């Protein structure tokens, strides 16, 4: 291996690592707030990318029907609960978010001919469809189980993943898709060729990470989420509802996931089941961070990306073996250095 | 004899026994899981298969095995014991098909696989006498590629394949025939179907400086290494396998795949075949039927393997019907014998001539070299 | 007998199954059996022991590949390959266990994913194992010249193994080692203080789960007569976990129910959905996922507890048999210095919790450690009992330095303790909770427990637990759930548990908190009696009447340091103490 190859591998590792970092952040966020190990995070990557690809191919993405269906389901359940509780005041919100919003989105998609829109509008439209699925899934699958054990939540999360992959196959088919890049530009950095899209990926990741940092530090909602993450009961006593925090974290996670999908779709082929392995790498990074620390999660993600890229050069058939074997010493080290508190569940 | 047919006529007045006399076909394909891009067109093709053979109604029971060997075996057990099928079609991948041999042979039910490896039907022994298959053997395709390579003066090749049974099967066959033709394989890399990056593998291959690169993958995932090679400035010749032969591959790979060579079943370029080619008619018939149901450009060569298995059945069943009644052990045995005796069946992928030692029966007419030009498959002479 | 009725009906149905059921049902039952064997291991490991593993499928693969390779390539007898497979699996599990079981919290599940994926790709890329394509031609199993060709014949073998695994696991959980296993989840620290080697216990259940998986894999290979990597991948590993959780991860029978429900649900969807929705799409996975979410929302502890409620049979009234008392420790002579703490310091980062603490406790005296909240009394307790060792200084117990020993080693030497925040296992019975205290007084291991060869010892342990419970006045609550007791009585339970270990020094952290007046009187009486028997008692307590009436000597702490020491009446008059207590309270 010469320096040139090492540089190229490093660049590749960092680009992949940037995506893993975004997913890891979302996983840490969701776990800290809701104790859900969010396996379906990867599905949002696939949904985001494939929804955009469907627009570009002039098709109506199946995720739109998913949005409409999930919206109706949430509306029905929430209406029943509201009627039983005699809290009809909630109806306005229920109808607005679960029926009116999806209907408007559907109107836009079916009326606008998205294939002719500029890329930015297509990407925005994809996010508008995919992101609300996050809180809806929280409402349908996780909210009734908010107090269950981590193990049960994990299994529910796997079940949701199974269903979402099945839906993905139904919506998008088994073959993959790519989208047109944000930028076709090529730059030369010394001996290194860098294309525009990879810069987009790294740049957006950094911007998003900073934005999240600001969100948690500066805004009321961000602070509420942090409070819930640190002490659920305490936060509830202070009037921060678990449900609100849960929905908000799932919305953010869905947003991060779908956006990551839109970012990588031009540089790789995305399939209905791409999400699992990508999500798993994000999960690895998140775990390295102990599911609590955001900066460590980002560092872990870059580490995973680099390990992957170099091991695929050395022994591609054993790539996963190498990556995961090398992860174990890191885990042991983390295990020994992090302060051990016995969980009482 | 007369009395017997009278009894049959009387019985067939009842709906229950009517179903008994139908030919029941069990299908298990990988419509979900990693091999879904193979299984889905195969499943779609089943709907186009004849519903009446030799005056008998044909019922198809289609199951999904999720590309999983355990489920494949479970499906065979269900089809043979619950549904008492007369024949099994499937499955889509080599491992699942291999796993299905035992239970199918145990139930003495003929099976036609849609998977590539020769190991499924060779050597024909006590168990594999029940097993047939329609796709060309990897080695036939690998030979076509190496032939083309040596004719074009290629001395060194880098190989990159799926990290699964498909890539493995190709590596075994290709490395063997390449050696025989004195072509040096300078790199052997693997990648996973859902990998998002193959930069490492591509750099490794390029550092070996090969005259050509062969990508052994199926469907759209085969585009990734080729696009990565282009991006890193690789200038040599590119080869793909027949696994990529569907239009989704062209859609995803786009202009990066111009000039790529691949061996394929003639169905891929059916309209370009000379009219003298006996396969042309059969292949066009399949394409027309499939595209009528699923839209233009939707056809894939995988579905055509399924179509061929249906064709074999349609040719063999009338012969077997003369000997025994569907739903019986005798019928299944007769069907097996009939399949083994099939001669000159024109399928979408070639001409089938079965024999007691050859349960595939395809010859050189089952493969053509194709080049991707202008975003189209172009037949090479 | 009546309690056994559902079980007997179930066994009878199983026995006649193959002669009446159609072929395919047998096939399904075979697969259910194979899955359930793995799921039982997960119940033990994850549901009971609290260690989540995604990697069990890899151990199934080890069992399957060992026999597949040896029988096809070297024509070894399948029965021999079972032994070899178990040995290989045990070796791999031990290595992986030593590496990954020391991972805490969420690091462990990721560790299991790591080796689950790695073994999968190893199977797929090793040429002698047939690579991704797989190995064919695995021979049928023969038993005394009788060959198991068909599913019907195989059925009995699978279900015998499964029922054996159920029985062995149930026996194990209802034993001394079993209580240690059940203490792992949420009670590890307590168990260590009772002398349980939790690290070893974790390895043991990990090993058992791996061996169960290996046996399942061996059976799978000979039933299927073909192996390739796909049935041993991460997805299947997750599915095993699914089965355990859906069935009821904390219950051995839950594994069976889970394996059954998942397998049948999938089959049912495969039959039903094409009829409802047509052949055009693949809806199985979608509906499967949604149904599982709904099941878990309705029954989050799994299906088994829900089934049990439907069977209208009350649990048998249990009795604790009389048994020969356990041997007693030889008590040190009255007045011997039992505990000697010299210049003990404890720092957490920059925070000094204990500074230069010294105290002694003699055999046959009650020493009270008092001080305002946050003075560092409980920290002192943790230093002495080895839960959280001192940063510097010396702790001696009957002359021996113990400040760097593990808490279980200190327990072994005769020091018993209770905790300020009650640490017991709320869903376990009072009796069993107390019996954990007697862990070190038994010696029979996992194997004899599974085979019920340790009943004599077990009876003695339980009889001892009962005796201690009667002594502290909880004799009427033996079979109640420990969590159902009022907090005060839970504290008393902890004293019984500590006594069960037959200690010569007792560390009691606020034993009287939450007790009513009469109960306090009884407790004081008990402690006096223990003192009379020659036991040394170190007591932390806030109830001054209780302390002053009982203690022989008193040490007062404030801000982690000793501010006074002496007889109760001396300390009460010490101006420094008055300042600390009264001056501190504004």
UniProtKB/TrEMBL annotation, chain A:
<dbReference type="InterPro" id="IPR001851">
    <property type="entry name" value="ABC_transp_permease"/>
</dbReference>
<dbReference type="InterPro" id="IPR052157">
    <property type="entry name" value="BCAA_transport_permease"/>
</dbReference>
<keyword id="KW-0029">Amino-acid transport</keyword>
<comment type="similarity">
    <text>Belongs to the binding-protein-dependent transport system permease family. LivHM subfamily.</text>
</comment>
<feature type="transmembrane region" description="Helical">
    <location>
        <begin position="65"/>
        <end position="83"/>
    </location>
</feature>
<feature type="transmembrane region" description="Helical">
    <location>
        <begin position="248"/>
        <end position="271"/>
    </location>
</feature>
<feature type="transmembrane region" description="Helical">
    <location>
        <begin position="17"/>
        <end position="37"/>
    </location>
</feature>
<feature type="transmembrane region" description="Helical">
    <location>
        <begin position="95"/>
        <end position="113"/>
    </location>
</feature>
<feature type="transmembrane region" description="Helical">
    <location>
        <begin position="283"/>
        <end position="306"/>
    </location>
</feature>
<dbReference type="GO" id="GO:0022857">
    <property type="term" value="F:transmembrane transporter activity"/>
</dbReference>
<dbReference type="GO" id="GO:0005886">
    <property type="term" value="C:plasma membrane"/>
</dbReference>
<dbReference type="Pfam" id="PF02653">
    <property type="entry name" value="BPD_transp_2"/>
</dbReference>
<keyword id="KW-0472">Membrane</keyword>
<keyword id="KW-0812">Transmembrane</keyword>
<feature type="transmembrane region" description="Helical">
    <location>
        <begin position="119"/>
        <end position="138"/>
    </location>
</feature>
TrEMBL record, chain B:
<keyword id="KW-0732">Signal</keyword>
<feature type="domain" description="Leucine-binding protein">
    <location>
        <begin position="23"/>
        <end position="369"/>
    </location>
</feature>
<feature type="signal peptide">
    <location>
        <begin position="1"/>
        <end position="21"/>
    </location>
</feature>
<dbReference type="InterPro" id="IPR028081">
    <property type="entry name" value="Leu-bd"/>
</dbReference>
<dbReference type="InterPro" id="IPR051010">
    <property type="entry name" value="BCAA_transport"/>
</dbReference>
<dbReference type="Pfam" id="PF13458">
    <property type="entry name" value="Peripla_BP_6"/>
</dbReference>
<protein>
    <submittedName>
        <fullName>ABC transporter substrate-binding protein</fullName>
    </submittedName>
</protein>
<comment type="similarity">
    <text>Belongs to the leucine-binding protein family.</text>
</comment>
<dbReference type="InterPro" id="IPR028082">
    <property type="entry name" value="Peripla_BP_I"/>
</dbReference>
Automatic annotation (TrEMBL), chain C:
<dbReference type="GO" id="GO:0005886">
    <property type="term" value="C:plasma membrane"/>
</dbReference>
<keyword id="KW-0067">ATP-binding</keyword>
<dbReference type="InterPro" id="IPR043428">
    <property type="entry name" value="LivM-like"/>
</dbReference>
<protein>
    <submittedName>
        <fullName>Branched-chain amino acid ABC transporter ATP-binding protein/permease</fullName>
    </submittedName>
</protein>
<dbReference type="Pfam" id="PF12399">
    <property type="entry name" value="BCA_ABC_TP_C"/>
</dbReference>
<dbReference type="GO" id="GO:0016887">
    <property type="term" value="F:ATP hydrolysis activity"/>
</dbReference>
<dbReference type="InterPro" id="IPR003593">
    <property type="entry name" value="AAA+_ATPase"/>
</dbReference>
<feature type="transmembrane region" description="Helical">
    <location>
        <begin position="32"/>
        <end position="51"/>
    </location>
</feature>
<dbReference type="GO" id="GO:0005524">
    <property type="term" value="F:ATP binding"/>
</dbReference>
<dbReference type="InterPro" id="IPR032823">
    <property type="entry name" value="BCA_ABC_TP_C"/>
</dbReference>
<feature type="transmembrane region" description="Helical">
    <location>
        <begin position="154"/>
        <end position="173"/>
    </location>
</feature>
<dbReference type="Pfam" id="PF02653">
    <property type="entry name" value="BPD_transp_2"/>
</dbReference>
<dbReference type="InterPro" id="IPR027417">
    <property type="entry name" value="P-loop_NTPase"/>
</dbReference>
<feature type="domain" description="ABC transporter">
    <location>
        <begin position="339"/>
        <end position="584"/>
    </location>
</feature>
<dbReference type="GO" id="GO:0015658">
    <property type="term" value="F:branched-chain amino acid transmembrane transporter activity"/>
</dbReference>
């Amino acid at each position: 291996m010469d320096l040139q190859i090492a540089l190229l591998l490093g660049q590749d590792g960092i680009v992949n690592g940037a995506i893993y970092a975004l997913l890891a952040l979302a996983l840490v966020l969701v776990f800290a707030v809701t104790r859900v190990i969010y396996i379906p995070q990867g599905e949002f990557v696939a949904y985001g990318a494939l929804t955009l690809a469907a627009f570009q191919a002039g098709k109506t993405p199946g995720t739109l029907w998913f949005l409409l269906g999930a919206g109706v389901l949430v509306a029905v359940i929430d209406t029943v609960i509201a009627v039983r509780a005699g809290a009809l005041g909630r109806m306005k919100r229920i109808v607005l978010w679960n029926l009116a919003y999806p209907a408007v989105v559907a109107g836009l998609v079916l009326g606008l001919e998205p294939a002719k829109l500029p890329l930015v509008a297509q990407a925005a439209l994809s996010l508008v469809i995919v992101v609300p699925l996050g809180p809806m899934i929280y409402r349908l699958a996780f909210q009734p189980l908010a107090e269950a054990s981590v193990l049960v939540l994990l299994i529910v999360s796997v079940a949701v993943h199974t269903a979402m992959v099945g839906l993905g196959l139904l919506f998008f088919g088994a073959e993959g898709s790519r989208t047109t890049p944000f930028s076709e530009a090529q730059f030369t950095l010394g001996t290194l060729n860098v294309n525009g899209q990879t810069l987009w990926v790294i740049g957006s990741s950094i911007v998003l990470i900073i934005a999240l940092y600001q969100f948690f530090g500066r805004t009321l909602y961000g602070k509420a989420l942090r409070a819930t993450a640190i002490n659920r009961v305490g936060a509830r006593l202070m009037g921060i509802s678990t449900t609100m925090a849960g929905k908000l974290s799932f919305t953010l996670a869905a947003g991060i996931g779908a956006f990551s999908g839109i970012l990588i779709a031009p540089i790789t082929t995305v399939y209905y089941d791409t999400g699992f392995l990508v999500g798993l790498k994000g999960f690895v990074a998140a775990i390295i961070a102990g599911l609590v620390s955001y900066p460590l999660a980002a560092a872990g993600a870059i580490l995973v990306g680099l390990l992957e890229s170099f091991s695929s050069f050395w022994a591609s058939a054993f790539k996963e073996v190498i990556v995961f074997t090398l992860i174990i010493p890191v885990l042991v080290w983390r295990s020994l250095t992090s302060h051990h508190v016995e969980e009482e569940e | 004899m007369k009395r017997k047919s009278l009894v049959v006529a009387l019985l067939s007045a009842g709906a229950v026994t009517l179903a008994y006399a139908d030919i029941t076909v069990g299908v298990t394909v990988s419509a979900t899981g990693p091999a879904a891009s193979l299984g889905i067109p195969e499943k779609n093709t089943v709907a186009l298969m004849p519903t009446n053979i030799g005056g008998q109604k044909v019922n198809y029971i289609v199951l999904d095995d999720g590309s999983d060997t355990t489920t494949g075996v479970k499906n065979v057990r269900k089809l043979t014991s619950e549904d008492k099928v007369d024949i099994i079609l499937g499955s889509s991948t080599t491992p699942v098909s291999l796993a299905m041999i035992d239970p199918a042979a145990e139930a003495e039910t003929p099976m036609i696989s849609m998977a590539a490896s020769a190991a499924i039907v060779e050597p024909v022994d006590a168990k594999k006498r029940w097993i047939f298959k329609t796709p060309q053997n990897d080695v036939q395709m690998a030979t076509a590629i190496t032939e083309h390579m040596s004719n074009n003066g290629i001395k060194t090749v880098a190989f990159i394949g799926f990290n699964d049974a498909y890539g493995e099967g190709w590596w075994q066959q290709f490395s063997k025939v390449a050696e025989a033709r004195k072509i040096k394989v300078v790199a052997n890399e693997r990648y996973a179907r859902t990998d998002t990056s193959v930069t490492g593998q591509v750099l490794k291959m390029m550092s070996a400086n090969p005259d050509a690169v062969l990508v052994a993958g199926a469907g759209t995932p085969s585009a990734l290494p080729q696009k990565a090679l282009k991006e890193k400035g690789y200038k040599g010749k590119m080869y793909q396998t027949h696994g990529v032969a569907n239009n989704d591959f062209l859609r995803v790979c786009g202009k990066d795949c111009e000039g790529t060579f691949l061996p394929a079943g003639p169905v891929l370029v059916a309209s370009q075949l000379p009219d003298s080619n006996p396969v042309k008619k059969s292949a066009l018939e399949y394409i027309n039927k499939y595209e009528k149901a699923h839209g233009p450009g939707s056809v894939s060569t995988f579905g055509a393997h399924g179509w061929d298995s249906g064709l074999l059945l349609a040719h063999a069943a009338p012969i077997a019907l003369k000997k025994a009644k569907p739903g019986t052990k005798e019928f299944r045995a007769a069907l097996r014998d009939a399949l083994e005796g099939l001669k000159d069946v024109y399928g979408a992928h070639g001409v089938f001539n079965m024999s007691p030692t050859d349960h595939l029966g395809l010859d050189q007419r089952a493969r053509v070299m194709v080049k991707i030009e202008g975003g189209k498959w172009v037949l090479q002479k | 007998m009546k309690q056994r009725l559902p079980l007997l009906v179930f066994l009878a149905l199983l026995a006649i199954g193959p002669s009446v059921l159609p072929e395919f049902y047998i096939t399904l039952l075979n697969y259910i059996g194979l899955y359930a064997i793995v799921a039982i291991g997960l119940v033990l490991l994850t549901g009971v022991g609290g260690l989540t593993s995604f990697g069990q499928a890899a151990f199934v693969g080890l069992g399957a590949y060992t026999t597949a390779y040896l029988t096809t390539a070297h024509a070894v007898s399948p029965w021999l390959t079972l032994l070899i497979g178990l040995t290989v699996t045990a070796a791999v599990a031990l290595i992986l266990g030593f590496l990954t079981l020391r991972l805490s919290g969420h690091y462990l599940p990721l560790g299991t994913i790591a080796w689950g994926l790695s073994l999968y790709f190893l199977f797929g890329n090793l040429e002698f194992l047939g690579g991704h394509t797989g190995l064919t031609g695995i021979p049928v199993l023969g038993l005394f010249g009788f060959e198991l060709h068909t599913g019907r014949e195989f059925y009995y073998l699978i279900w015998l193994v499964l029922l054996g695994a159920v029985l062995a696991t149930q026996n194990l959980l209802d034993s001394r080692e079993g209580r240690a296993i059940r203490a792992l989840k949420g009670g590890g620290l307590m168990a260590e203080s009772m002398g349980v080697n939790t690290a070893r216990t974790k390895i043991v259940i990990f090993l058992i789960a791996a061996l169960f998986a290996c046996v399942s894999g061996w059976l799978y290979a000979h039933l299927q007569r073909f192996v390739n990597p796909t049935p041993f991948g991460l997805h299947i590993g997750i599915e095993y976990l699914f089965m355990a959780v859906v069935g009821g991860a904390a219950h051995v029978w839950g594994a069976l129910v889970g394996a059954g429900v998942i397998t049948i649900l999938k089959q049912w969807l495969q039959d039903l959905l094409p009829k409802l929705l047509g052949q055009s799409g693949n809806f199985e996975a979608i509906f499967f996922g949604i149904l599982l979410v709904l099941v878990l929302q309705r029954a989050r502890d799994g299906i088994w507890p829900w089934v049990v409620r439907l069977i209208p049979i009350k649990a048998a009234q249990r009795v604790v048999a009389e048994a020969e008392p356990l041997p007693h420790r030889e008590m040190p002579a009255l007045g011997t210095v039992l505990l000697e703490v010299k210049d003990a310091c404890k720092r957490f980062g920059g925070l000094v919790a204990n500074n230069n603490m010294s105290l002694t406790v003699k055999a046959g005296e009650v020493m009270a450690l008092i001080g305002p909240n946050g003075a560092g009394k409980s920290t002192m307790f943790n230093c002495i009992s080895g839960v959280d060792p001192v940063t510097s200084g010396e702790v001696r117990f009957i002359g021996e330095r113990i400040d760097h020993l593990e808490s279980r080693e200190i327990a072994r030497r005769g020091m018993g303790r209770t905790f300020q925040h009650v640490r017991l296992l709320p869903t376990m019975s009072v009796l069993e909770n107390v019996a954990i205290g007697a862990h070190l007084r038994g010696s029979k291991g996992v194997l004899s427990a599974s085979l019920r060869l340790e009943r004599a010892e077990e009876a003695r342990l339980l009889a001892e637990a009962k005796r201690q419970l009667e002594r502290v006045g909880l004799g009427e609550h033996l079979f109640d759930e420990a969590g159902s007791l009022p907090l005060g009585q839970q504290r008393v339970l902890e004293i019984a548990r500590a006594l069960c270990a037959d200690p010569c020094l007792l560390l009691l952290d606020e034993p009287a908190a939450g007790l009513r007046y009469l109960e306090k009187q009884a407790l004081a009486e008990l402690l006096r009696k223990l003192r009379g028997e020659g036991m040394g008692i170190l007591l932390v307590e806030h109830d001054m009447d209780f302390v002053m009436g009982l203690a022989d000597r008193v040490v007062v702490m404030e801000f982690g340091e000793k501010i006074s020491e002496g007889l109760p009446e001396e300390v009460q008059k010490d101006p420094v103490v008055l300042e600390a207590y009264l001056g501190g309270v504004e």
